[in-house]
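Run folding on both entries below.
>entry_1
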Amino acid sequence: MQLAKVLKEHEFLEDLVGVWNVRAPEMTGQEPWTEIVRSLHGVWFVADGSGQMPGSGAATTVLTLGCSADKGKYIGTWIGTMMDYLWVYEGEVSDDRKILSLYTTGPDFGDTKKLADYREQITFHDCDHCTFNSATRQPDGSWKQFMGAHYTRKR
């Protein structure tokens, strides 16, 4: 078996490596989450998050990201201790190389017997600040954001 090759597309993911403080509007008054992102030889990137969920206690999340040469797409997964669903992503980076958009299907939070389409976006504002947001597809095809977080790289 041949080892996976680091592609030019992986350079975007390298910018995620580091230790980040994470804040969201619903976390007002709480300690920020911490997310530690590491590279697995430049091919895969793993983000381990931990913090307090408002009103729910401690939680842990794991995001994996990579790039599939066969699909020509960014790919990944997400799991969190707050649910028992494995989210699987495919996506792309914007032409200006500032936004990674990841698309997935998962439980509809309004009716858990149905599935809904979701889009997660990581937007880089500079090398030490990015935002993460989640949106759900509306019946008209538009996206409605329901969650957002601000990331600041720890020095």
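>entry_2
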Amino acid sequence: MDTSDIRKGLKMMMDGQPYAVVDFQFVKPGKGQAFTRVKVRNMATGAVLERTFKSGEKLEPADVEERNLQYIYPEGTDYVFMDAATGEQIPVAGEKIGDDSKWLSDGLIVPVTVFNGIAIGISLPPHVTLQIVSSEPGVKGDTASGATKPATVSTGAVVNVPLFVQEGEWIKIDTADGKYLERVNNVGKK
């Protein structure tokens, strides 16, 4: 790969560590050689740093593997995922998942990034469907447009939902910002 391949999400090796491009900017000054200013995140540690690459400089693709694994259960501070094809169980450290753990429900299939045989992170889907386990009933007459109430979903996360949404219903939630998207009526088991 070279600098013309740089884009958001590109995974590359730098100093023996896998990095993912968070942001980049191509700069062509009036004088001198063009370059690309890149902000990258270390996929193993989460550290973010900036680097500058001269135009045409060669880059090494990251030696990471993306595997679609099924979430099965928490174990201490870790979360255990399973490869449905082989039955292999792979733990992912809680600090690698962070706050995203509140969207993990039994059976959810997520891409897990593996580096040197060790899981270093997950990529949540854009939205998840979860069941509301507790919510106060909406107050009759309180119909102001956009009025919401807090609801606890099956994973323990609290989401603000419209007043008409009831306990026991399934809702779709945006994993990026934790906002309610819509009610889901025909949910078999996901």
